[in-house]
Specification:
Blueprint lengths: L7 H10 L10 H14 L4 E7 L5 H6 L3 E8 L2 H10 L6 E5 L11 E7 L7 H13 L1 E12 L10 H14 L2 E8 L3 E8 L16
Parallel strand pairs: 1-2, 1-4, 2-3, 4-5
Antiparallel strand pairs: 5-7, 6-7
Helix pairs in contact: 5-6
Length: about 210
């Protein structure tokens, strides 16, 4: 039995033992976090969204209301089975089972949602993924990240470190931090891809410590 908490085997075992092991569908914490994510993005409509690590599709189903298309995937096939059931009536949602790797990202997006996934990577891997995501983000596209601030033995990084790494990587690629909020249980940061020389009226505030 693997002890690698970033492997497909680890996550698949979790979902086979419990179809919703992190209570994404029932947790009041998750509901608050999802509501916060949607408030950060609901001022516009998106053509194509990406949600890696979509789990059982709770947030995915809600993103479908704001997007023409949502591409979502998860490393655990059993999670995708549940997500397909939940999103069965949503023709604009496309689900697949896959690991979150650089070669998995294809096409261009104007919304990328990183929800409770960053802590399963080492810093170097998260930096590489950040650069890949930036290259697939359309001008004026948005990346929103929301992560728990607690400590888990299953996580490689803490939520704060995840957001520090993302901010450093995205800033180097010219993304502007549009929103940065810290709550008792989680934090949310939202970046936008601004064209060089643009006078887009957003002050890069930096992530809150």
């Amino acid at each position: 039995m693997t002890t690698d908490t970033t492997s497909e085997e680890f996550f698949e075992r979790k979902y086979r033992a419990d179809t919703d092991p992190w209570d994404f569908a029932t947790s009041s914490y998750e509901r608050r976090r999802y509501d916060t994510i949607l408030r950060a993005i609901n001022h516009r409509r998106y053509r194509r969204a990406l949600e890696p690590g979509c789990s059982v599709g709770v947030l995915t189903s809600r993103l479908a209301s704001f997007c023409d298309e949502v591409e979502a995937f998860d490393i655990a096939p059993s999670a995708i089975t549940v997500a397909r059931e939940r999103c069965s009536g949503l023709n604009n949602v496309h689900l697949s089972s896959a690991a979150f790797r650089e070669d998995r990202i294809a096409g261009q997006f104007d919304l990328i949602v990183l929800s409770e996934i960053g802590y399963y990577f080492k810093v170097t891997g998260l930096c590489k993924l950040s650069l890949t995501l930036t290259s697939h983000l359309l001008p004026l596209g948005v990346i929103v990240a929301a992560h728990w601030l607690g400590v888990s033995r299953d996580h490689v990084l803490t939520g704060d470190v995840v957001h520090q790494v993302l901010h450093s990587s995205f800033s180097r690629e010219g993304l502007v931090l549009e929103q940065s909020d810290r709550y008792p249980e989680f934090r949310l940061d939202c970046w936008i891809k601004v064209q060089p020389g643009s006078d887009y009226p957003v002050e890069n505030r930096g992530p809150k410590a």
